[in-house]
Amino acid sequence: MNKFTYQNPTRIHFGEGQIAAIAADIPKDKKILVTYGGGSIKSNGVYEQVTQALEDHNWGEFAGIEPNPQYDTLMKAVEKIKAEGFDYLLAVGGGSVVDGTKFIAAAAAYQGEDPWNILAQQHPVESALPLGCILTLPATGSESNSGAVVSRGKDKLAFLSPKVQPLFAVLDPTTTLSLSPRQVANGVVDAFVHVMEQYLTFPANAKVQDRFAEGLLLNLIEEGPKALATPDDLDVRANIMWTATQALNGLIGVGVPQDWTTHMIGHELTGNYGIDHARTLSIVLPAVMKERREDKEGKLLQYAERIFGITEGTADERIDAAIEQTIHFFKQMEVPTSLTDVDLGTSDIDTLVSSLEKHGMLALGEHGNITIDDSRAILQAAL
Ligand code: NZQ
Ligand code: ZN
């Protein structure tokens, strides 16, 4: 295990009715901008709860942050903040709203010429407006981490800064009951792949991180299909919500190697073809497992045994079986597992490889040894 410093400063309010808790978390002298998406919060009662919670606060709103939040939209919020003097942000929605609001928080306080450089040039975020969030879609972990992903046309880029980590996050599983089966499935798969990107590398003798990661994977395999089969089961939703938060709040990733190859290739699939984030991951991960089986052999065998109980056969046979079981789980969640499943083929691989090159994705993986040619091979294995 490598050395690390760990702190997760986001205060979590978990459970039914917890939206009310934000009243005490946001100072009364702040002028709050409530940000949200395309309107789901207006039809599922969340907006009303926010209105009630903020009845003694001074607040305004900015709607229309789209899935895979767009830079131009977010900059409109920045203009509003500057014109009207907001000094606190409250994101209400899924990962896109939370990510978009993180960028707004950083861009509103940015001193340089062009806030796009926070993403394109990875300019450090020196300061940001304070923000909290009410999460309505368990998936990204954005509610208690310091990352955000923003799109501008076909460019989908990420930045990380402790300055944009939410001060608090409300996780009320009842807010997730209005999600479509597609969004439920996407969330489970995204969280699953977050765990895998921090787990499926090489053994680092980090037993807490490994066993915690394995517990999260088992939860998702157990509860994910239930969320589709019995969508009204609140206990299932609660377990998925807490699992998704833990999957990317930093804890399982401390002191261990990580490999975000699946996400980096996945972002190009979303940027170029508009495929939902999680659905890009279910296409790419099995191909990464196949192509990088030598580098990942130790952890693949551990994964096979501890997650699926696979102990019989040669190492290669056990790894094949684990990859098959992973695909089986994704199919249960009704997400695509190949490029063909989303009507893409060999002729699209050049486009994806060029985008990876443009974005500097030339040395991916836990060893930094996944070259652009290796990414091409991964995409071919995903056909
Ligand atoms: O916009 P509204 O009307 O709210 O509808 C949304 C949206 O259409 C809807 N939705 C959300 N909560 C709902 C609901 N519909 C009914 N009931 C509810 N309770 O769901 C749709 C998708 O929402 P979105 O926020 O886009 O989904 P998700 O949470 O999966 O976020 C995806 C974004 O997060 C990024 C992805 O790249 C993508 O841009 N990620 C962020 C990460 C991070 N910050 O750490 C890590 C992830 O790997 C990921 O990259
Ligand atoms: Zn993700």
Describe this structure in words.
This protein is of the alpha/beta class. The protein folds into 2 domains: 11-176, 3-Layer(aba) Sandwich (Rossmann fold), CATH 3.40.50; 181-381, Dehydroquinate synthase-like, alpha domain, CATH 1.20.1090.10. Helices cover 48% and strands 11% of the residues. It contains 15 helices and 8 strands. The protein has helices at residues 22-25, 40-43, 46-53, 71-84, 95-108, 117-120, 181-199, 207-229, 234-247, 261-273, 277-291, 297-308, 315-332, 346-358, 372-381; strands at 11-14, 31-36, 58-62, 88-93, 131-135, 147-152, 155-160, 168-171. The strands form 2 sheets. A 6-stranded parallel beta sheet has the order 1-8-5-4-2-3, with helices on one face. It has a two-stranded antiparallel sheet with strand order 6-7. A hairpin with a 2-residue loop joins strand 6 (147-152) and strand 7 (155-160). Helix 7 runs parallel beside helix 9 and helix 7 packs parallel to helix 11. The chain is globular. It starts with 10 loop residues before the first strand and ends with a helix. The relative contact order is 0.11. The mean pLDDT is 98. Zinc ion binds next to helix 7. This is NADH-dependent alcohol dehydrogenase. Belongs to the iron-containing alcohol dehydrogenase family. Pfam families: ADH_Fe_C, Fe-ADH. Residues 9-173 form the Alcohol dehydrogenase iron-type/glycerol dehydrogenase GldA domain. Residues 185-381 form the Fe-containing alcohol dehydrogenase-like C-terminal domain.
